[in-house]
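retry 2 of 3: previous attempt timed out while embedding (5S)-5-amino-3-OXO-hexanoic acid. Reduced batch size to 1 and resubmitted. Inputs unchanged:
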Amino acid sequence: MVLTCAMVGAEVTREQTPYLPITAQEIGEDAAKCREAGAAMVHLHVRTADGKPSQDAELFRAAIREVRKRCDVLIQVSTGGAVGMGVDERCGGLTLTGADRPDMASLTTGTVNFGPDVFWNPRPLVRDIAARIKALGIRPEIECFDAGMVDEALALQKEGFIELPGHFDFVLGVGGALQARPEALDFLRAYIPAGSTWSCAAMGRHQLPFVELCAERGGNSRVGMEDNIFLSKGVLAKGNHELVAEAAKRARAKGRTLASPQEARELLRLG
Ligand code: KMH
Ligand code: ZN
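retry 2 succeeded.
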């Protein structure tokens, strides 16, 4: 089972939790602890020094270097960024090559309500981002906030923008989108093309129970402060590694073994 940790996100603030990693060094230190706790991959966003969401290439470079000097966890850069960002800003992490090249990048395949906002992903923009991911020679994690985003992945394959079978991440529980319900997960995992891999990122209080559902169903799982800051009701996680450790405990209790980054690379066909 591949455990991914979405460590930073674009929405959570230091006012909500003092444990959110913001600087490259904080991200590197927490990532190493996540790896130790059982994560094979981290999904990364970056922030400016004052905590504002950014997708700046140099901030990504600094964070990636701080992670890689400490551990071998796979690094997936976000191309979603924060609502309202333009495509070039969103794709900052895709400009990094050589030793700083990310292992994977997220790709959301449709527009969706996002709480009071709209996460804007019109079809030409999705194709633009998919082409940049392909040009970098890495594979996307296809992020589906709603069921139609699976169908759009099939359209992207037909048009040559992505390869399938692929790796899907079902993001369940965002306000205005598909909610974190077991039947939604069961529909989606049956709906993706045969041979594809999947994980699920459930929001808020659903995060840790969904690790167990994913474990039971033979899938992979994403946890982390991007989606949930609480270890239990009213108890903040004192770092992403605490969420990963709890996820690892629950997955193992369901009889799953956790993939190393190298094993995850093979399972997700990252080459
Ligand atoms: N912050 C959300 C608006 C991604 O990383 O690709 C989008 C997001 C998706 O987090
Ligand atoms: Zn993200």
